[in-house]
Amino acid sequence: RVMPNIVSAEHLGLAQSFKQLLARYRENKDLIAIGAYTKGSDPLTDVAVDLIPKLRAYIAQGITQGSVFTACKKELETLLQATQVADTAPVGTAKAAAAAATPATSNPTQAPRRASKVKRGLA
Q1: How many helices (DSSP H) and strands (DSSP E) are in the chain?
Q2: What is the tens place of the pLDDT at every residue in 87-105?
Q3: Largest Cα–Cα distance in the chain?
Q4: CA dihedral sign, ordered 108, 80, 44, 61
Q5: DSSP assignment letter at 114
Q6: 110 Rama class: left (phi>0) / alpha (psi -120 to 50) / beta
Q7: Nearest partner of 20 among 71, 69, 55, judged by Cα
Q8: d(CA 18, CA 96)
Q9: Is the pTM value of this prediction over 0.85?
Q10: Pairwise CA distance, residues 68 & 29, whole Å
Q11: What does the pLDDT read at residue 123?
Q12: Which CATH class is domain 3-103+110-120?
């Protein structure tokens, strides 16, 4: 909730795009797992499927592993910079951030975010 007040609009857009891709993958995880998802059905899901190993690697952090905020932001930029979805703005842009900021559903009872996400610049 505080992130828009403490990071740049660009960083906010990157974080929201990252979360959007991760959420899209999770929404379709079962279909993907059983081979029922057809590539090309949804451009954003296609991108999420292609990037899921990198998305997971980005948020993985050992219990004793530290993170430098600026390095994490740069890593996030690199991860998302070339990501484009048909008929939408590139993931990580202000337009994509605006789209990501209006989720289809919201869960007000969602558990608090873990501290490691704050360190990674995603909270």
Answers
A1: 6, 0
A2: 444 455 545 544 444 444 4
A3: 42
A4: negative
A5: P
A6: beta
A7: 55
A8: 10
A9: no
A10: 31
A11: 53
A12: mainly alpha
Q: Is 52 exposed, middle or buried (0-12, 13-18, 19+ CB in 10 A)?
A: middle
How many whole angstroms separate alpha carbon 114 and alpha carbon 102?
22
Ordered DSSP codes for 80-100: HTT---TTSPPTTSHHHHHHH
Residue located via tokens 């996400």: 117
The tens digit of pLDDT for each residue in 36-59 reads 999 999 999 999 999 999 999 999
Collapsing DSSP states into helix, strand and coil, what is residue 56? helix
Listing DSSP states for 14-36 in one string gives: HHHHHHHHHHHHHHHHHHHHTT-
What pLDDT is attached to residue 120?
56
* The residue to which tokens 């057809």 are assigned: 38
